[in-house]
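=== Structure Prediction Worksheet ===
Name of assembly: unnamed complex
Input type: mixed (protein and possibly other molecules)
Chain count: two
Listed entries:
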Amino acid sequence: MNNDQNLKKEIPIDYSSVLERVGEDESFLQELINIYMEDFGKKYKELKQALEKKNFTALREIGHSLKGSSANLSLNNLKEASFKIETAGKNRNIEIAKQALLLLNQEFIRLKDFLSKKK
Amino acid sequence: MLKVLIAEDDRISSKILEKNINEWNYKAVVTKDGKEAWNILKENDITLAIIDWMMPGISGIELCRKIRKEKKHKYTYIILLTAKKNQEDINKGLLAGADDYVTKPFNRFELKARLQTGKRIIELENERNRLEKILVIRSQQDSLTSLWNKSMILRLLNEEISRSQREKHPIGVLMGDIDHFKKINDTYGHQIGDNVISEVASRLKKNIRLYDKIGRYGGDEFLIILPNCNSMNLGRVANRLHKSLIDTKINTEIGALQITISIGGASCEIVDETAPDNLIKSSDSALYKAKNKGRNSVVITKQ
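=== Predicted Assembly ===
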């Protein structure tokens, strides 16, 4: 990996692409990120319950939905983690789902840290 | 401003779409539910829709099928929004009735361009509908008088007769013919002849009830259908029409012309299958009698 790619992986949100999508409106982006944060808490809780109950359908659906909103905000690492959960749900693989959920949580913490430092 | 329906359950995606679409000078109408999307499309004049594949209620694919199957009166241009990129899914979406698709997360400029395409198609469709309406009117109306033309007034006669038969009402028919119209044409020219016909048409129309029907039956001949009108009333109407034409001269470029008209009428108290032919025949022969009596008169026969 060269430095550029390393840097890209370090930054959890691809600002240039998401700003293009929202017409370069930073305050609107902030509003969307707030919605995402709010939704994430709810969905993460649901994912944990689904994992405990081995509810693969729920894992797949919530994973899919989270993948969509992460992709819309160009939160690429969170999108990848959500995709892993969706796939694990589809393949009915509880071990991978467990790992993916851990990864998802890590990435979310990284995003929060990043955003608070930015402020 | 063209309205665009956004049917998307994901809040973030929906908000981004709404903001962009309003910025591009459309009016966004937002719903997050497939069923609600169908209700909005069914009843409103919205002809452009961006529909998400995965939605609660009715999925995007099902909604596409429903729109194509059940919404016939107006075309809806559908852009399907999908996270799915594989060929099979795209085919499935297009076969279900989508016009186009955009994969999520969408590129802003691509979506704008694709909406532009939809707008172009809808504008073509609107223009086609407008022309179709004009053609329908042209095929039913007489261009000089704007009364119904011959084929339309005969169609209306059949409809009104069926209605009278069903509702057990009498029905009356009047046939009017301007006296010596050929002489007006020959003496003053066709332009003046046309002026006379227009004025006669408008006076006749003014003097009938809203639910009576009037058509230009021939060159200077008019046919009037009067539902729920018995023989006595038919005579009254005929005399009123006659009076409205002879009391006041018709103003034309070459001065005021006095014209007269002959009117024949027939009514039918008990309507049956033979009524269409009989009413026309009887009012025609009544008109013939009026002409034979020396014109400028009214003759009514009862069937």
